[in-house]
Amino acid sequence: MLDGLRAAARRNSDDKALRALIRACKRLLSERAEANSVAIAAELVQAYAQLPEAQRPKLFDALASDFSPDPQTVLAAATAYAQAPTARHLVKLSQVAEPPRQELLRRINRAPGGTACLIGMRRDLLTLLPSRPELLALEADFLHLLSSWFNPGFLRLEKVDWQSPAQLLEQLIQHEAVHAIDGWDDLRRRLQPDRRCYAFFHPQLPGEPLIFVEVALLPDMPAAIAPLIDKKSTPQERNSFKVAVFYSISNCQPGLRGVSLGNFLIKHVATALQRELPKLKRFCTLSPIPGLMDWLLKKPDFEALPGLKKPQLARLQAAHALLLHSCGQDLAGLQQQSADRPLEDPVQQALLSLCAAFMIHQTHSPGGDPVARFHLDNGARLERLNPAGNLARKGLRQSAGLMVNYLYDLAEVENRHERFTLGEVVHARAVAALL
Amino acid sequence: MLDGLRAAARRNSDDKALRALIRACKRLLSERAEANSVAIAAELVQAYAQLPEAQRPKLFDALASDFSPDPQTVLAAATAYAQAPTARHLVKLSQVAEPPRQELLRRINRAPGGTACLIGMRRDLLTLLPSRPELLALEADFLHLLSSWFNPGFLRLEKVDWQSPAQLLEQLIQHEAVHAIDGWDDLRRRLQPDRRCYAFFHPQLPGEPLIFVEVALLPDMPAAIAPLIDKKSTPQERNSFKVAVFYSISNCQPGLRGVSLGNFLIKHVATALQRELPKLKRFCTLSPIPGLMDWLLKKPDFEALPGLKKPQLARLQAAHALLLHSCGQDLAGLQQQSADRPLEDPVQQALLSLCAAFMIHQTHSPGGDPVARFHLDNGARLERLNPAGNLARKGLRQSAGLMVNYLYDLAEVENRHERFTLGEVVHARAVAALL
Amino acid sequence: MLDGLRAAARRNSDDKALRALIRACKRLLSERAEANSVAIAAELVQAYAQLPEAQRPKLFDALASDFSPDPQTVLAAATAYAQAPTARHLVKLSQVAEPPRQELLRRINRAPGGTACLIGMRRDLLTLLPSRPELLALEADFLHLLSSWFNPGFLRLEKVDWQSPAQLLEQLIQHEAVHAIDGWDDLRRRLQPDRRCYAFFHPQLPGEPLIFVEVALLPDMPAAIAPLIDKKSTPQERNSFKVAVFYSISNCQPGLRGVSLGNFLIKHVATALQRELPKLKRFCTLSPIPGLMDWLLKKPDFEALPGLKKPQLARLQAAHALLLHSCGQDLAGLQQQSADRPLEDPVQQALLSLCAAFMIHQTHSPGGDPVARFHLDNGARLERLNPAGNLARKGLRQSAGLMVNYLYDLAEVENRHERFTLGEVVHARAVAALL
Amino acid sequence: MLDGLRAAARRNSDDKALRALIRACKRLLSERAEANSVAIAAELVQAYAQLPEAQRPKLFDALASDFSPDPQTVLAAATAYAQAPTARHLVKLSQVAEPPRQELLRRINRAPGGTACLIGMRRDLLTLLPSRPELLALEADFLHLLSSWFNPGFLRLEKVDWQSPAQLLEQLIQHEAVHAIDGWDDLRRRLQPDRRCYAFFHPQLPGEPLIFVEVALLPDMPAAIAPLIDKKSTPQERNSFKVAVFYSISNCQPGLRGVSLGNFLIKHVATALQRELPKLKRFCTLSPIPGLMDWLLKKPDFEALPGLKKPQLARLQAAHALLLHSCGQDLAGLQQQSADRPLEDPVQQALLSLCAAFMIHQTHSPGGDPVARFHLDNGARLERLNPAGNLARKGLRQSAGLMVNYLYDLAEVENRHERFTLGEVVHARAVAALL
């Protein structure tokens, strides 16, 4: 019973803390706060850090309900603007249509640590969003402002290497999401002169990478990941660098999800490398295909694929039958291969055909590959499919070992991006030939 | 005639450049540009730099007319939101009510040099504004975004001293707007340990101060400016510092007019000084009163002053009569005093009374002193009026030599600001006693 | 036979390289080289880096024999100076008595990388020295110049922490000579706010620590090493720091052996910590006693110990007998204890008595403890002996687990150092009481 | 009489200070000081700063007399070494022959500010030297150590430009010794991209340039100084740079006189410029001829010039007669020319002939030109004589307006320096043709 009393007391005190926080938000937006806003914002930043996790949804509810524009006021301004679209009416409309919480967030941002606090709030908000659609407009305000502040013009591209602070390098080990870094020795190899790492930083978050990309400098476009991340490999000479390969890109800030960073990063890095190493001829990726096996295991309906010709359809169905036959009717068997027990050649060919179909005809539809969508939308071209490119457990599970190269040609990204937005998947002829 | 042809040709080519620039703006906003936006923005930045001055108004016209929200779309969204104020309706409303040119400006900001370009555009726009009210909404968009980006959370406070780059110091000489800096020797004196200078910088504009404040560290609150800016004065010892005096604050970026900087700067500096020199007891200004003589020369209607009591009114009128009498009926005579020919004591007293009335009862009305309004709104208190505080030409012309101290008490600024917004002029008793 | 030919050819080419290098040395010293000395020195630096290891002794022979002062010339100058000790005779004497190779080394030092080259040469020379006493004068010239250049006035003290470059931190792991660092996690713990690391750097060797010291900030003088280097221990609060403990000091540059660095480092660090944390009351070490067990196992001749009184002698002999008895006559048994199997109390007491005798009466003689000699000569006081201070293998082997605290009192170091040089071992009364 | 007493009292206290300082020197050298030497050195540095100027000679006397090697000890060591030149005897000899004050200076150098103190001491010493030859050996010890410490390997070459701290730039204005800098506007012009300034710094004297050189980047080798230092000239484009002209080199530290800096500086800068601007074709100077008019006015004895052929001698005598005739027998008249009143052509030709003789045949003898000696000894070639190269007062006074270009060809400096040391003045054919 004592425990119950204690819990009640804590709840009570938590409720108080929440109400105080909401009051502080209102005060920060008030006229009175003008002359002292940085100090109030700093209190608010601290209060959020101490708010118990269970109280956060209530705070977000309050921000969603109490800090929205007034519907009637907006309607009146919109009506006036529709009747006479003058500058004065527009100014009025802009003022009343913008949710007041945007100004609140801007004022929180005035505090030391304000930016980090807002990113943390959004991270917390994003975890709630799936079950709380009523927070959608609040989320949109966060995204709107963070996108404005994490504008690539405000970001600093920095090379990360073995001279970087341990504090920073530690974060790479922690956040690498594609090919895990196996401790400091592995990391050191990935920062030698023929392997590069670049990250975006924001002046308000010094020492904290927002996103980073790992690059291998090679003589040729690579077909497999293992040699690129072999921590015992010998660094290659500068003279041999012809191709820059983006082999991993990882976000470090969950609270910045949806803020465009990766696409800018790849182009900034390509430009920087081109300047440093004018002999580089190509920029490409060596990428996973996380969606392939899911698609295959769900027994794809080839007939529903848009833009497929009859003979292609027939060949795909035959390939699928061959795969099934080779695995005793369970495609999960494809995930069991290894360097010692490779797929037989016809089976591998059938797999490549199906993958080509998946990439070219499924990407624009639900179930399409998200990595493909990222790079193609970013103006890259689907360049080559590589059998047995990644025989590690994750690679086998995702795509039966297949990997893909996307090609970045800076002169073509605008054109290719547009073609992608119009529904095309720009690809090399060799990929089409696999169908 | 040949000249005419040439001029026509140039006009023709200028028109072409303008149309290309507007097209580039539309392209930058298009879906297609997504994958290449930094490059397009960079072109736009360069194109604006080369646009002939005469073409700028036309560009602003285009930005004002072609990049506004569509009235009917906004009205529909506002109506839907008024009928059902859901998150989804609000998101939609926010999207369609924000002028598309805000996104355009954000995308320009992605380019290297983008921020500087936008500040330059706004500077140009501000010179046009008085005669072009239809550009008001465009101007509001600029101010809205620049205020968000030049948030004090994003600014860096830096001490400027004799170790600073000459490139930076040169800008102080150029922009000092209150007490002109008479060359490098004068500047050097103003950067000795008992004189300080602090400036705000933005990460995107390295080496370019946005605003700076000059501070004198003294044993007492000063009554006159000359000793503070005497370039031959001997620097005082650190132990003697009891009062920090803000004696000059100047903006360096006309394109940031209206973005709150000065109020944050004063408080940041006060906080930084307090930390460095815990023995500092007071933070105050020694400020000009630029509006006083204008007000006096226009023969103020004392009876219209709000909140004045009868006996005060009588005393003011007597004071005014005394002044007129002392100058042979032309108050401009007050602007002729000097250290050798000071005002006679009763005349000086009469002047102080009138100044106290001006500060306490006129500040909230048109014709009130702008410097008073800035500091009082910023939470300061009107502390002391100083006769013969500035006998330099400008000081005599503006205020017959009078200067004023405003007092900053960080624990009181919020409260005092609020009182000011409610119509009060917070002042020391001694000032009231002058009435 | 072919192999023989090849080896002969290689020897031939190596000899050529050596002769070329010696010629380059002579050229660098020549008048002609004046105008081009940096370039010649740079060639020499590179040539030494490529010289096969087997050729180094021959190079050192040449430097020892061909670049010494001419005996007759020196004798003439010394005679003239003895007959008339004028300034002019002294200048002449200084010129001819200094070995010309000192000027050679100074000129090599002009090249980029020259300093590192000279340190490398001395490292190589030191390995040869034991078997080649004729290189002694050459070694003395190296030491003379390096001591002049690695003067503490030219060194930079820097705090090393988790913000330091990985490249630098890696060298700590590699060079820690007292309590090995077990990987990056261990290192991270040793760089938390309650553990410090400071190193000396030379401007010519950026990023390369010369020597570093590890410090623990604690509430009390510690008696055992394990808690200090426990990588899972929780960092303590700044408020609790009363004692700074130097628990490890390691050189990183074998080529700087004999150049005074450690004594300056300890005092610099103590001064820096005192300034940062005025509440620190004491500076001490927690040090190993590497010479104790060697001394005990060699059956010390107690009667030969200087300054021992009769009753003390008797007690020491009894203590020794007790130890022998407790171990079955083999003192190596003392090295087998552990936390679970501690020494019995009387045995531990006997061991402490013997240790006290070793420290107080043996330090000035051969076989005395080198660590004791370093700290006592450096002006520290022998403060406390700690039983079971280090039960790790190395601690048991060196000193049967005993550790010692030396106390640094900056106001006393000059006095204590002098007493040490006069033959005393300054110690706390409690240590003497153990006898 | 009171004044007399006071002066006596002051003298007394000054004497005391001096004696204390000398005692501190002896203490610093003592064994006892080992453990506390940095602190003692720091006291000594402070004591010297406070020593009254009149006491300095006495301090230098003490350093000269009390800290020299003992003649008999040196003689004994030299005798032993002469009898058996072993390593051990040499080590002993080196120890006793080096004046103990060198170790004293090295220990002073351990203190913060020690290096600056020693440079200041030598500056003071150098002013005394002309009248005090007995201080010669002391001076030699200072020079010996400073040369070892201000080794070019320890110096940092830095570009100085408009981004440099005002504190540093101020020193350029103050120390420019060749073509005075007329305030900050003049300085700014000399730091534009087509004018460069480079300086050497020592890590122990941050922010204090040791020596600096000013460079003009031009399309052609210049014949006159005025356009190079015209503060209103327009900066030229990078593409036009073909020649780098060293037009001024100035020392900032009188206490480093005689330490080789200028020759290293010129070559470092030439190398750095070559790397930055590979299109640069030539490196040369535009130099004054400070000794010319002095030589001419003293009526040179042409017959005594070494290496002059008969016909040349005749022509020189004729030229001299012509000059005398043109000036009414007073060559000082040559110093009166101006742009408006140039010398008549035959007179100018006669002057050039005499100058060529002065440069080629007098440089190696007393009365030769010191600037010529510096550059020729440094490996440059006498390239061209320029009439009316400097019509400013100083230029007319020194050399009747003549200036000279020396050419630096990095591949030739070693060879040319050697030829100069063998007595030759390496010159272009065109200069010889003037004879």
From TrEMBL, chains A, B, C, D:
Positions of the Malonyl-CoA decarboxylase C-terminal domain: 153-409
Residues in Malonyl-CoA decarboxylase N-terminal domain copies: 67-150
Example of a GO MF term: malonyl-CoA decarboxylase activity
Protein name stated in the entry: Malonyl-CoA decarboxylase
UniProt xrefs under Pfam families: MCD, MCD_N
GO BP field: fatty acid biosynthetic process
Record-linked Gene3D superfamilies: Malonyl-CoA decarboxylase, catalytic domain (3.40.630.150), Malonyl-CoA decarboxylase, oligemerization domain (1.20.140.90)
Parts forming coiled coils: none
